[in-house]
Amino acid sequence: MELDPVFLSRLQFAWVVIFHVILPAFTVGTASYIAVLETIHFITKREIYLRLSTFWIKIFSISFGMGVVSGVVMPFQFGTNWSRLSDAAANVLAPLLAYEALTAFFLEAGFLGVLLFGRHLVPRWAYLFATLMVAAGTLLSAFWILSANSWLQTPAGFQVVDGRYFPTSWSEAIFNPSFPYRLAHNVIAFYITTGFVVMGISAYFIRRGTFAEEGKVMMKMTLWLLTVLVPLQMYVGDAHGLNTRQYQPAKLAAIEAIWETGSELPLTLFAIPDQDAEKNLYAIEVPYLGSLILTHSLDGEITGLKAFPPEDRPFVALPFFGFRIMVGLGIIMLGLVIWGNWLRIRGRLTTTPLFLKVLQLTIPIGFLTVIAGWVVTETGRQPWTIYDHLRTADSMSPSLTGLDVLISLLAYVIVYVFVYPTGVILMARIVRKGPRSTGHGEGDSPVEAGRPEAPVLAGAIEN
Amino acid sequence: MNPVLDFVPIWTAIIALGVFFYVMLDGFDLGVGMLFGLAPDTPSRNLIMNSVAPVWDGNETWLVLGGVALLAAFPLAFAIIIPAVYFPVLVMLLSLVFRGLAFEFRFRDSENKTFWDHAFAYGSGLATFSQGVVLGAFIQGFEVTDRTFSGSSFDFLTPFSVVTGIALMFGYGLLGSGWLILKTEGEVQASARRHGRICLVGVLIAIGIVSIWTPLAQPVIASRWFAFPNIVIFAPVPIAALAVAFFTWRALGSSREAGPFIGAILLFLLSYLGIAISLFPMIVPYKYTLAEAASSEATQAFLLVGTLFLLPIVLMYTAWSYWVFRGKVRGQFGYH
Q1: Once rounded to an integer, what is the mean pLDDT over residues A116-141?
Q2: d(Cα A140, Cα A146) in Å, to the nearest integer?
Q3: How does pLDDT run across A84-109, given as a tens digit for each residue?
Q4: How far apart are CA A241 and CA A273, in angstroms?
Q5: Consecutive H or E run containing B188
Q6: Measured between CB atoms, does B109 come within 8 Å of chain A?
Q7: Each residue's pLDDT tens digit, A424-453
Q8: Which residues of B touch A118 (CB under 8 A)?
Q9: Mutation site for A-interface testing, chosen from B32, B48, B65, B108 by largest number of A Cβ within 10 Å
Q10: How many CB atoms lie within 10 A of CB B170?
């Protein structure tokens, strides 16, 4: 079998980016949640908020540590595997990444030490400031990285000279056509992802009976957030879809598996897209709904895949199924929010066993949705790295052989398959111990001869 | 092009500064990681780890900044060099994964503590070795066709790059022992002084080997150093290095606490200067100069505005976080 370096590099990128993205999906939300809890505690001085914040800081520290180390991998991927893309696009793209490091990473890293270890070393206001700065850092990071990704999807503000891309307008390049939608869609998704983790852990505390009080406080807060964000996300997602239709028509056609250009199109609920035969098998369709959703009118026209040469089409099955998984999970989330509010009105939000049990099961729902969404947007733009300009096949580092990439891919697979479950197990262990007020003698590891158990705990313990 | 404003020298200075900050800061905490592996018991290991736990993350951020700033200011260099050192970069990244996670996992995963101890020590060692190998491969130069690296992914592996890999392990070890002398007391400090001396000897031997080997292998470098009047102008660099080495040796043996760390930093600074003198103005050695590899003026200008504004702020709050955790690291709640 011939080892294809391009295919393997794509696989490698998909692997490292999917594993990386689930961490920001969680840490962006958690950092903001910690900032909210610290602010409430700063104002009300109620001890329960301090306990909750300390508890979430422990979980945050693990996920953030994993996010940092998997994130350091990412910019190097540009150089190791996609050096021709780097050479071509660096003039526009690299400053965005550099600004991410300058504004976001240093902000997070600089104040993280204080957040984790410094509660007793700095004044209260300075500690609150540090939590706010860490939260701001995570959001700034999302801003820049999504700007860079959006530029690759819908490039703007540039000119091409000798196959290389030079900036002509920075505001157009940063605020490129799909960026506002992508930023809003992702940040809301990150908050929702964290929200369902918080709901699930609250449900666990309430069901178990220990820390039920903390669980109730978390659940009541978080349901408000989700009540606002889940419907908002559907609205933003719809707007993002209209934007995709305008700027990445082939991606939209692939998402909906529409082969023929036409109007009054049905919505395909399920089908098996057949790339070679250019049609869908076993399709289940709802008449007119496709045009209605995608164009907001019954007879809106949508460009089909056949309007693009076969070599310019994405592999349809991935965006098609990825999109259906994403939307399906979104509808489940909406159902949970409606159910929760109905229970809240009847005063049974925290006492309905079935609801609590379901919430525990749906802890990973946000992560799965985020991954599905990334698969849709990243496979949907193929075969381009810079949409309509630079092909994926022409973006690779020319010196790499299939074997080189296979070795590195296997190394990433082995390491991540080991590291991620370990992290999840450790976080589960923290959850099992719950938000205790002190960590003395009941922390995460035995006290060692008068030494602190962990630097993380050392800073977080109130005495 | 605009003849008045030339950003290339400014960016050269910024990147040189950024790389040096990375080497100095992550250098000492990687060195601490290697010395951690030599510590005799769990209490001293806890202490050693706590001495860098609040700051390692910020230190590693300089690696990301160095990488993306190189991509932004000298994209051609990034696009040639990084694929050429594909495997050392891979090993470095994966080592940094294990080492970074050890900070979080070691304390929470008591049944696998030994594993995370090893991950921290070997991860630090391997990451350091890989960086040294990258440096060696860089000094040796790369096979380039047009605008891409055209050699094989195993070209990096030469006796010279293995030597520079080992050299950097001694170098970071020296920085790490300087840091530990500063931050600890008693037994841990005493063994840091002993290890520091071993590392210093290793560093001096390595500097000697590289200083002889490089001019022999690269006539360009030989003529740069030994032609008149350069030999007079550049002579202070090796002489100062010897003086600093002597001062560091003495400081390691005395009761001075800041001396060894300062000495190690100066030694790095002088070696760094030596490499710069050898290679300037090449950024892809013997092939492309800084000016040839530079990005467009618009790119450099756009990033410069923010960098000149943000970098001082970054340095300020970085200094603040070091200040918060100043003083000796002790058992209870540390950092008093």
Answers
A1: 89
A2: 10
A3: 888 888 889 999 998 888 888 888 88
A4: 20
A5: helix B186-217
A6: yes
A7: 988 898 888 888 754 433 333 333 333 334
A8: 54, 324-325
A9: B108
A10: 22
Number of independent structural domains in chain A: 1
| Contacting residues of B for A168, CB less than 8 Å apart | 298
**ipTM score assigned to the predicted complex:** 0.86
Q: Which of residues 187-206 of B touch A (CB under 8 A)?
A: none
Question: Which amino acid does the sequence have at B217?
Answer: A
Highest mean pLDDT among A358-367, B35-44, B49-58, B302-311: A358-367
**A76 at the B interface (CB within 8 A)?**
yes
Please indicate, yes or no, if residue A280 is contained in any of the structural domains: no
- B234–chain A nearest CA distance, Å: 34
A283 in contact with B, Cβ within 8 Å:
no
Q: B87 CB near a chain A CB, below 8 Å?
A: yes
Smallest CA–CA distance from B312 into chain A, residue? A102
Residue A242, both tokens:
């209209």
Query: Are residues B46 and A448, on separate chains, in Cβ contact within 8 Å?
Result: yes
Q: Does B44 have pLDDT greater than 50?
A: yes
- Closest-CA residue of B relative to A93 is B72
Q: pLDDT class for A281, splitting at 50, 70, 90? A: confident
Distance between CA atoms of A317 and B251, rounded to whole angstroms?
Answer: 67
**Which one, of B129, B123, B120, B131, lies nearest residue B36 by Cα?**
B120
Nearest 5 degrees, angle CA A393-CA A396-CA A398? 110
For A204, the domain range is 5-261+303-462
Residues 276-335 in B contacting A (C-alpha not used; CB under 8 Å)? 295-296, 298-299, 302-303, 306-307, 310-311, 314, 317-318, 320-321, 324-325, 331-335
Tell me if A283 is assigned to some domain: no
Whether A97 and B58 lie within 8 Å, measured CB to CB? no
Task: Choose among A79, A102, A422: nearest Cβ to B307.
Answer: A102
Quick one: average pLDDT of A380-387? 89
Q: How far is A34 from chain B (nearest CA, A)?
A: 19
Of A70-79, A447-456, B3-12, B53-62, the range with the lowest mean pLDDT is A447-456
- Put simply, the chain A residues between 102 and 121 with a CB less than 8 A from any chain B CB are 102-103, 105-114, 116-118, 120-121
Kindly state whether A426 is in contact with chain B, defined as any CB-CB distance less than 8 angstroms.
yes
pLDDT in tens, B260-273: 999 999 999 999 98
pLDDT tens-digit map of A335-373: 999 999 999 989 888 888 899 999 999 999 999 999 999
pLDDT band at A394 (very low <50, low <70, confident <90, very high): confident
What pLDDT score does A455 carry?
46
Kindly state whether residue A248 falls inside one of the protein's structural domains: yes
C-alpha distance from residue B199 to each of A405, B99, B131 (Å): 36, 21, 17
The pTM (predicted TM-score) of the whole model is 0.88
CB–CB contact B108 A66 (8 Å): no
- Between residues 236 and 255 of chain B, which touch chain A (CB distance below 8 Å)? none
Q: How far apart are the first and last CA of chain A?
A: 64
The b-or-e profile of A387-424 (16+ CB within 10 A means b, else e) is bebbbbbbbbbebbebebbbebbebbeebbeebeebbe
pLDDT tens profile B212-244:
898 888 888 888 888 888 888 888 888 999 999
pLDDT of amino acid A278 = 80
A397 part of a folded domain: yes
B318 contacts in A (CB within 8 Å)?
106, 110
